[in-house]
Fold this sequence. Notes:
CATH architecture of the largest domain: 3-Layer(aba) Sandwich
Shape: globular
Strand content: 5-15%
Bound molecules: NADPH dihydro-nicotinamide-adenine-dinucleotide phosphate, (2Z)-2-iminopentanedioic acid
Structural class: alpha/beta
Helix content: 40-55%
Distance between the termini: 39 Å
Radius of gyration: 21 Å
Largest sheet: 7 strands, mixed
CATH superfamily of the largest domain: NAD(P)-binding Rossmann-like Domain
Number of domains: 3
Amino acid sequence: MPSAAPASARQPLWLQELEADILRRSPGEPEFHQAVREVLESLAPVFERRPELRTAKLVERLAEPERQLMFRVVWQDDRGRVQVNRGYRVEFNSALGPYKGGLRFHPSVNLGIVKFLGFEQIFKNALTGLGIGGGKGGSDFDPRGRSDAEVMRFCQAFMTELYRHLGEHTDVPAGDIGVGGREIGYLFGQYRRITNRWEAGVLTGKGIGWGGSQARTEATGYGNVLFTAEMLRTRGEDLAGRQVIVSGSGNVALYTVEKAQALGAQVLTVSDSTGYVLDDKGIDLELLRQIKEVERGRVSDYAERRGGSARYVTGGSVWDVPADVALPSATQNELDERAAAVLIRNGVKAVSEGANMPTTPGAVRLFQEAGVAFGPGKAANAGGVATSALEMRQNAGRDSWEFARVEEELARVMRDIHATAFETADRYGRPGDYVAGANIAGFERVSDAMLAQGLV
Length: 456
Ligand code: NDP
Ligand code: 2IT
């Protein structure tokens, strides 16, 4: 099991100073700071073995986005009022391929959040081995309560600026929080109109009839469950028969529930930003999908319509529900030390991140110290972006694969990422530490490409 010493105590002074310098240059971006710190805490052993990476200033270069775009988005709502939002695209690193990563539409979006997500995406995308660089974007636009027509006008206004920075070989966005199939459709339509090009590979997460890939919608949730099953198998355990708690009730959460149930687990919870549902009989996925995907409703509606077995809880934490496996699938920092302590006390065996950075650093430490199998998002939720890369591959070949073929490829990629993280952790003397394994393996892949490509 990993050593319990706090990572900062193991950091050489030069790395601590470098970290302080990176944070100082980006004030007021706590999520970005958290993401950088978490990666740097894994890297000291790499520099011991490979001092040339220090000389080439790989950390300094990786922490500095290649390009950061911020732009005004003006649109008109259904009542004719003018609305002003801010758009972002951080093109972080293109050493391994075109910038690749989702767009997030949520009122909390700011530059620091987009940078944290973009930074994570570099290493995650490297781990897929599918030739994609790292980027992320979005807007503080809140799609909740907006009509389809308003969402369309916003997406068109957003793309009217962003299109000039995109391209199938340059930068390829996809979905994230608040951006799903509907939004990708409107964005793609506007890109096509402005450029007069049918360039399918410029966005992923498209509809199946017009360039989208089978299984992309399912991929992130499916991938995280496969990763979890793989972690358990490595320990001689099984997901079948386990009780699972899931947070969130969006794209990632829904298909996490589906795959966990398919592998024989019982899923007790889903949640949203107002509360969670505890269903003693296990989540009824058909009802949940009807409410979330068709009606765009809330988990409270689920509890109301499910009848006796489900309770809707506000004011508590989904992590208070006893379970064997916890799969945070909503948003960053949703699982803190207090929640981790409760989960550990309740006997949790595995925690795996469907969301990006949902677990606070203190909570990660508690899980690792307690010997809980912990899957970091950059490895565990990479199935979404990996399947995006498969969508790009299909687009480039003007091809479209069957569901089973994509799912098979996804399963292969997830097994490969698990093995890479596991073996890298071992090689660097951190057995069982998937955080260190994923960070180091991702860092080495990008660094090797950057070294070979010179000072760019
Ligand atoms: P969705 O918009 O489909 O769903 C988001 C879910 O998270 C909703 O249930 C939402 O509840 C909840 N949520 C969002 N913000 C908060 C908040 N501040 N507090 C509590 N709950 C919140 O997004 P996705 O399912 O696509 O994304 C979920 C997570 O997975 C994100 O961290 C994303 O970055 C990550 N991810 C997504 C991938 C993808 O392919 N879509 C790939 C890899 C990672 P409410 O409706 O109340 O806001
Ligand atoms: O965080 C993520 O990996 C995503 N939101 C998916 C990105 C993508 O390009 O498919």
